[in-house]
Specification:
alpha/beta, Rossmann fold, 5 helices, 6 strands
Length: about 130
């Protein structure tokens, strides 16, 4: 079973519009969705419409929330705002961290950091399809 940690931008995108493609994550079988209070708060703050915030709240009802963070693996360099995301994913023992943050996480796409495979959502869906 995959344990998928969702970055704030994935949560934001899933809630941004009705029937967003990323909402498919919530329909997958044999998947546990996890995020952090930090990521959920960031997504909420960036959503401007009340309907978007309501969609996010409904999605978050089906996501396990973690507040604990693990140390960063040695040698991993991330901006301060992104460190708690990876740390929470490691602490949650996620198998995957899904993020659309190409600028900061892009160099790590396809790599395991602290046991967590970093992927953009489209690549996760593709790998799962090929399965």
């Amino acid at each position: 079973m995959d344990r998928i940690f969702l970055d704030a931008n994935v949560l934001f995108s899933a809630a941004y519009r009705p029937h967003a493609g990323l909402a498919r994550l919530w329909q997958l079988e044999r998947v546990e969705l996890v995020t952090s209070a930090h990521a959920a708060e960031e997504a909420t703050l960036n959503l401007t419409g009340e309907d978007q915030r309501v969609r996010l709240a409904k999605l978050l009802e089906k996501v396990r929330m973690t507040t604990a963070v693990a140390p960063l693996p040695p040698g991993v360099k991330l901006p301060g705002k992104d460190q708690p995301i990876l740390q929470a994913a490691i602490q949650a023992q996620a198998t995957h961290l899904l993020t659309g943050d190409k600028q900061h996480f892009g160099p790590h796409f396809g790599c395991r950091l602290g046991g967590v495979l970093i992927l953009p959502p489209a690549e996760y869906f593709e790998r799962r399809r090929k399965g």
